[in-house]
Amino acid sequence: MFKLPVLLLALLLSSCAATYKPLRPERLNYNAHDVQDGTSLSYKYDVLRERGNRRYANKEENKGVRIVAVKVTNNSDSDLIIGRNAAFFSGSTQLFPLEASVAQRMIRQSSASYLPYLLLTFVNLTVTKKDGSNTTQDVYPIGLALGPGITIGNMAVASNANSNLLRDLMVNDLFDKKIKPGETMYGIIGLRGWDYKPLSLVRTAAGIDE
User: Fold this and answer.
1) What digits encode the pLDDT tens for the residues 78-130?
2) Contact 2/125 with Cβ under 8 angstroms?
3) 66 phi/psi in degrees, rounded to 5
4) pTM (2 decimals)?
5) Residue 85 exposed, middle or buried by CB count within 10 Å (0-12, 13-18, 19+)
6) Considering all CA atoms of the chain, what is the largest pairwise distance in Å, rounded to the nearest integer?
7) Where are the chain's structural domains?
């Protein structure tokens, strides 16, 4: 007879680390819109969860961060540069989006959290055999492969997912990018806070510093 409960549990634990699915803001359907001074802003909250990044969405909720997909259209006759002559606002309050690396650090998976799975190294598989009145048991140290294998596997998946998240945030960072008249640009911003603020993109005097 095989004693499998521990083995099955270990196999379930091996899937704990989550991969990351790109947000692709250009493909989203936006449900909130605002127009200010020839600038059209569409935005969408909860994009991490919508794209199937449940682990990161939960971190977002716990850490007080909102990852927001945005669509910006410049309908004016002059260039729009977020951070220089335009800024995000919620009502009369100016918002300062987090740098991509800061937002990623706040919601990333912890690779070190999978180190306790090394305890599975001490798990043995016992096989009981009966031959008439004789019973024998063979013990196999399967943990020597399972413990390190599950730990390293989860840590690798988490690290790769975190790297993909950072890359996505950086590629879609709109700060200091020039949006020409008539041009539409998509991006991702990270905001501090637990609430869902109404957003607008407002023309401002040049030289805004965060």
Assistant:
1) 999 999 999 999 999 999 999 999 999 999 998 766 766 666 676 767 777 88
2) yes
3) -120, 120
4) 0.79
5) middle
6) 93
7) 5-203
